[in-house]
TrEMBL record:
The chain crosses the membrane at residues 12-32, 141-159. It holds the Pfam family DUF212. The lineage of its organism: Bacteria, Bacillati, Bacillota, Bacilli, Bacillales. It comes from Lysinibacillus macroides. It comes from the Bacteria. This is Membrane protein. Keywords: Membrane, Transmembrane, Transmembrane helix.
Amino acid sequence: MNLSLLQNTPLLVALFAVIFAQFVKIPIHFLMTRQIKWSLFTSTGGMPSSHSASVTGLTTSIAYETGLSSPIFAVAAMFSFIVMYDASGVRYQAGQHAAVLNQLRKDFQTLLHDLKKWPQMDGQEKMEELKTLLGHKRSEVFFGALTGIFIAIITYELLL
């Protein structure tokens, strides 16, 4: 394996930003709910957006290495805008639709149960619900973006 990959600072900053943003979701959730939810480390959605942290960390690192006028910075910046728009738009709306569909399915199951006196069987597996936390609120995307930018700035200004 070529170890030069481990010297790719923009890649390392982007990866660290994802891990940091995913980890920090746990204490933020604890402060809001007083519940520790370790599954947030591997879940989508939530505060801050790890997608936004990753792409802005990558883009900021590329700006440090190649300058704001470089074509690769332009590609990274457009990539960042698309990812953040998608996270706060399409994916967020898909999560909202999933929540409504889950409720409709529950209501339909209740209707069947009431109409037919459907017996509950022991060991009957619960139907898996659609994932509702797919995207981000704009504030989650914003703070994710700031997270990535700050991680890149700290890396380049203090560590390198």
